[in-house]
Each structure stands twice: as C-alpha cells, then as structure tokens.
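Q&A log
Question type: sequence-to-structure
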Amino acid sequence: MSLTDREKLELMRQGIIRGFIIPQLEERGYLVSYWKRPISLEDMYLRDDGWKPLYSRFTSWETYRKDYPLYLFFNTFYGDVYEKAYKNCFTEYLISIPNYQLTPSLLGVFTRLNVGNGYYWKHRIPINLSYPEACVKIIDATYDELVISLAREGVLDELEKLESKIKEHPRNNGSCK
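Response status: OK
Response body:
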C-alpha cells in the first residue's frame, strides 16, 4: 500500500497526538465522546473535476470532552505538505448543537464550521507538536478559557438544555450532516 505525502504527515501527527497528548489529556479528565466531528466544505478543496477531500482514509473524526459543552478535535489532515509539516496541526473546540445562535460577543472567538445544510461553532488554534508538554497545557488552558467565556455570556445552561433535547429525540435532532 503506497502512501501519499499528506497521508504520511497525517499519520505522524496522529502518532504524536495518540502517543503523548491524548494520554496526558485523559489524566486531566478528557474522555472520548460519542459525538464525531462532521465533515465540512473547509475539509475539501475545489478542482476542475469537483470537490476533493483534504482528509485521508486515516483521518479520525473522534472528539474528546472534559466539561460541557465543548468537544475537542485534532485536525491532523489540514496543513501544508513540506519537510517539517508533521510538527504542526490544529486543535478545534466545537459546540455540538447545530445552527445555534451565539451571542454577538462570542462571534469571532468562535467561527462557523459550515456543513451540508447548516453549521456548528468552532474555535481553532494551531499547535506545534515538537513540544507536546506545552501543547497539553495550551489545549487545556484554551478549553477552560472558552468555557469561562461561554459561562460569562450565559450560554452554558441553554446549550445543556438543547443537548439533552437532542439526546431525548435523536431522530429529530436537526443534524447538519
């Protein structure tokens, strides 16, 4: 089986994340969640023959969760292909409620992840995998800062109610997939 350069870089990033970062985050209370990050148009690029995926057959759509309401996703497929590109990837903090109306003060802190017939909110930061210990601290601190921002705006209770409704009625959840 022949691998492309993009696939090799993605596997290298995943190896660092799964080998060190995720175990460290698990010690801090992060657990694998049931919710998978949806595929969006930003995960693809447009060619003459149509939309082509940036992600590969090795991409994991798995998310992690510490506290409500954010889900943590490691975007290992997005990025340039060059010699030391394996060192860089993005960490995304996602709100799993589709088409949720954020307060104006949170716009810009969170941006839209556009999917099929709607959107989710995300906050994205780059991380340098050369320093995994620092990555863990940055990921955890950013998570906490975002939860505090959501709490300050009074959004946490509303998101929790919406998620419980989605869990009660999974067939009619307004999914954007």
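Response note: The CA atoms of residues 6 and 81 lie 6 Å apart.
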